[in-house]
TrEMBL record:
InterPro entries: Cyt_b/b6_C, Cyt_b/b6_C_sf, Cyt_b/b6_N, Cytb/b6-like_sf, Cytochrome_b, Cytochrome_b_C_euk/bac, Cytochrome_b_N_euk/bac, Di-haem_cyt_TM
CDD domains: cytochrome_b_C (cd00290), Cytochrome_b_N (cd00284)
Positions of the Cytochrome b/b6 N-terminal region profile domain: 1-210
Keyword tags: Electron transport, Heme, Iron, Membrane, Metal-binding, Mitochondrion, Mitochondrion inner membrane, Respiratory chain, Transmembrane, Transmembrane helix, Transport, Ubiquinone
Name of the protein in its database record: Cytochrome b
Subcellular location: Mitochondrion inner membrane
Keyword Amino-acid biosynthesis: no
Transmembrane segments: 38-58, 78-97, 109-133, 139-158, 179-200, 230-252, 273-304, 324-341
MF term (GO), any: metal ion binding
Gene: cytb
First-listed, main subcellular location of the protein, grouped into a coarse class: mitochondrion
Biological role stated in the UniProt entry: Component of the ubiquinol-cytochrome c reductase complex (complex III or cytochrome b-c1 complex) that is part of the mitochondrial respiratory chain. The b-c1 complex mediates electron transfer from ubiquinol to cytochrome c. Contributes to the generation of a proton gradient across the mitochondrial membrane that is then used for ATP synthesis.
Organism, as annotated: Macoma balthica (Baltic tellin)
Length: 412
């Protein structure tokens, strides 16, 4: 009797158990495709960045001209540069959709997977910021000046830390070289975290849109989801190439096509669009220290999601009010991104402050909404139904553990 090679070879057997023969829930929808898209984009970013690094010069007097050289003189250099810059935007589109799906369907109950994923998100933000500085245009230079100055808000050691990052008393050639080295090596650390992320995910298995036990309804990853992921990656890569070939500058800032000038500040300094929500939160707080704390808290608060109480259902499929509030939260995120592109004046300042409040209020409020809905549904189910229902389990339910229907007995 012959067997498939993956069953005879130990290495192939281990790989097949994590990918080819991986048991998956039968009802996963398109929102689970963004993880594979992120893996594809990571490969595209590393390869295109490696090719450009062969022609880039990390020197404050040559960096901008070396980018121009890549665009005009290097064979297909324009393609790789546009792929790399627009690929970063697509990376963040996919990661926001991926994390939004995790928040909607409560993927944070997979504690280790979620923690590694949030760490990857923070590292990705650092890599994107470092890469944004490398072209050494006006927006790159002044964006680096503004962001690195935030470290000066740290009590007692802030100024020392800021000058250590700069390598001097201002953003200079030493800063550019440090940022270049970190931007080159951190993606490989991100790839290592990706492997750990996948290991924890495949060790515990994915959740599903209904948030119920799916032990009896599992299918193998191949061919059911491998083909689906392949189609998703084709759509994503095709869309990326449409942007690269027909609108390569749609995500860029016009000021960044001007060489960096330390003596001329742009009228409106702003980061890339994927940082605008945090930038708006920063400038919505009048106090510098408070703004920096709010900026850090807007991202670090994701680490607290796995520690929230567990309720009757996983995910928001059976919580209509929580679904409504979730989309209000998404709207506040989009509003913060829009306000970040506008000048600091009315009515944008008030809009940013209100959106920041809605953004932060979501994290404690959505827990209360889910618990209230569980209690309401339990009351309607057992007080308006047959007589003789045992209410002790419902009345003593404190939301700290999952409530089971088996605990609620009906006396005939």
């Amino acid at each position: 009797m012959s067997y498939a090679p993956r069953h005879n070879n130990k290495i192939l057997h281990a790989v097949a158990g994590s990918f080819y023969d991986l048991p998956c829930p039968i009802n996963l929808n398109m929102w689970w495709n963004f993880g594979s898209m992120l893996g594809m984009l990571l490969v595209i970013q590393i390869l295109s960045g490696f090719i450009m690094a062969c022609h880039y010069t990390p020197h404050e007097g040559l960096a901008f001209s070396s980018v121009v050289h890549i665009m005009h003189d290097v064979h297909e250099g324009w393609l790789f540069r546009s792929l790399h810059s627009n690929g970063a935007s697509f990376f963040f589109m996919c990661i926001y959709a991926h994390m939004g799906r995790g928040m909607y369907y409560h993927s944070f109950v997979l504690h280790k997977t979620w923690m590694v994923g949030v760490t990857m998100y923070l590292m990705l933000m650092a890599i994107a910021f470092l890469g944004y500085v490398l072209p050494w245009g006006q927006m790159s230079y002044w964006g680096a000046t503004v962001i690195t100055n935030l470290f000066s808000a740290i009590p007692y050691i802030g100024n020392m830390v800021t000058q250590w990052i700069w390598g001097g008393f201002t953003v200079c050639d030493a800063t550019l070289k440090r940022f270049y080295v970190l931007h080159m090596y951190l993606p490989f650390a991100l790839g290592g975290l990706f492997v750990i992320h996948m290991y924890y995910l495949h060790d515990t298995g994915s959740n599903n849109p209904l948030g119920v036990d799916d032990g009896g309804d599992l299918v193998s990853f191949h061919p059911y989801y491998s083909h689906k992921d392949f189609v998703g990656m084709l759509i994503m890569v095709g869309t990326l190439f449409l942007v690269v070939l027909f609108a390569p500058d749609v995500f860029g800032a016009a000021e960044n096509y001007i060489p960096a000038n330390p003596y001329k500040t742009p009228i409106h300094i702003q980061p890339e669009w994927y940082f605008l929500f945090a930038y708006t939160i920063l400038r919505s707080v009048p106090n510098k220290g408070g703004g920096v704390a709010a900026l850090a808290g807007s991202v670090l608060i994701l680490y607290l999601m796995p520690f929230r109480p567990k309720y009757f259902h996983l995910g928001l499929a059976f919580y209509p009010l929580s679904q409504l509030y979730y989309w209000i939260f998404v709207s506040s995120f989009l509003m913060l991104t829009f306000v970040g592109m506008r000048p600091v004046q009315e009515p944008y300042q008030v809009m940013g402050q209100v959106s920041s409040l809605v953004y932060f209020m979501y994290y404690p409020t959505h827990c209360l909404l889910e618990r209230w809905w569980d209690v309401l549904m339990s009351y309607l189910q057992f007080s308006l139904g047959e007589s003789g229902v045992n209410h002790s389990k419902v009345s003593n339910y404190d939301g700290g553990s999952e409530l089971k229907w088996d605990d609620l007995s009906v006396k005939n």
